[in-house]
C-alpha cells in the first residue's frame, strides 16, 4: 500500500499549491463573488470584523501542559463599543478574537497525514459551510499580506487577550457586511446547536 493510500502524500508528488486551493475554496463559498469579502479598514476602530496581525494571544502548549503566547493574525469578534478605551466601565479590558491559521500552514501540516484529495475535499467542505467547526477566509492583499494564501478560523479555538495587546497590533483589513453576516451564521450554526446528549432536569 502506498503512503497516499495510507493517508499521507506519496513521495515524489508535488505539494498542493495553497493559492490554487484558496481560489477553488473561494468559488465554493455560498452566495459570494470574488472581491466581496473584504474592505479597507479606513477609519474603523478596533472592533468586530477587523483583521489584525502581530497580535499576542494565548495558546495551549500540550508538551508544557500550560499556556504560552503566540504572535499572529486574528479576527476581532468583540464589538467596538465594548472595548473602546474612552468608554471606561467594568469588564472592558479584554477582547475576544479568532486566531487565523494561514491556509499554506495547514496544507503543509496536513501533508504528513492526509492525501491531496482528502485535504482539498476537507477545505472545500469548510468553504461551502458543510464542515461547521471551521470558517474559511479568502485571499487578501499582496504576497506580503498574512492573508495572501487565505486562512482558516477554528471556531473551537477563540481566544481572549487584553485590549492593550490589541491596540499594539496592526490592522490589515475588515470584513464586508456580507462577510460579517456569513461569519455570524457560521458561529450560530456551530455553537448554538441542540445538545446530542439530554441535559439534566432541574431539581
Explain what this protein looks like in three dimensions.
A hairpin with a 4-residue loop joins strand 2 and strand 3. 27% of the residues lie in helices and 26% in strands. The protein has one domain: SH3 type barrels. The N and C termini lie far apart (57 Å). With 203 residues, the protein is an alpha+beta fold. The protein contains 6 helices and 8 strands, in the order H-H-E-E-E-E-H-H-E-E-E-H-E-H. Strands 1, 2, 3, 4, 5, 6, 7 and 8 form an 8-stranded antiparallel β-sheet that branches.
Topology at a glance:
Elements (H helix, E strand, L loop, with lengths): L2 H4 L11 H11 L9 E2 L10 E12 L4 E11 L17 E9 H8 L5 H13 L5 E4 L13 E4 L4 E4 H4 L3 E6 L1 H15 L12
Antiparallel strand pairs: 1-8, 2-3, 2-8, 3-4, 4-6, 4-7, 5-6
Number of strands: 8
Mean pLDDT: 89
C-alpha termini separation? 57 Å
The profile of the biggest β sheet is:
8 strands, antiparallel
Helix and strand element order? HHEEEEHHEEEHEH
Poorly predicted segments: 1-6
Oligomeric state of this protein: single chain
Query: Strand portion, in percent?
Result: 25-35%
Q: Total number of helical segments? A: 6
What is the CATH third-level topology name?
A: SH3 type barrels
The appropriate CATH architecture is Roll
Count of the domains: 1
CATH class: Mainly Beta
Amino acid at each position: 500500500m502506498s503512503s497516499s493510500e495510507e493517508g499521507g502524500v506519496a513521495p515524489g508528488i508535488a505539494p498542493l499549491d495553497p493559492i490554487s486551493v484558496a481560489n477553488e475554496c473561494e468559488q465554493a463559498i455560498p452566495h459570494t463573488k470574488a472581491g466581496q469579502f473584504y474592505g479597507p479598514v479606513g477609519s474603523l476602530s478596533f472592533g468586530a470584523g477587523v483583521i489584525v496581525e502581530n497580535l499576542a494571544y494565548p495558546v495551549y502548549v500540550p508538551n508544557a501542559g500550560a499556556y504560552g503566547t503566540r504572535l499572529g493574525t486574528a479576527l476581532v469578534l468583540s464589538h467596538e463599543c465594548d472595548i473602546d478605551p474612552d468608554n471606561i466601565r467594568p469588564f472592558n479590558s479584554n477582547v475576544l478574537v479568532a486566531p487565523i491559521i494561514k491556509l499554506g500552514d495547514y496544507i503543509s501540516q496536513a501533508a504528513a497525514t492526509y492525501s491531496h484529495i482528502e485535504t482539498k475535499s476537507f477545505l472545500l467542505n469548510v468553504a461551502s459551510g458543510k464542515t461547521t467547526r471551521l470558517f474559511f477566509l479568502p485571499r487578501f492583499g499582496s504576497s506580503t499580506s498574512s492573508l495572501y494564501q487565505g486562512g482558516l478560523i477554528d471556531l473551537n479555538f477563540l481566544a481572549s487577550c487584553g485590549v492593550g495587546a490589541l491596540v499594539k497590533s496592526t490592522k490589515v483589513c475588515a470584513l464586508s457586511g456580507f462577510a460579517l453576516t456569513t461569519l455570524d451564521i457560521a458561529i450560530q450554526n456551530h455553537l448554538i446547536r441542540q445538545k446530542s446528549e439530554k441535559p439534566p432536569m432541574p431539581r
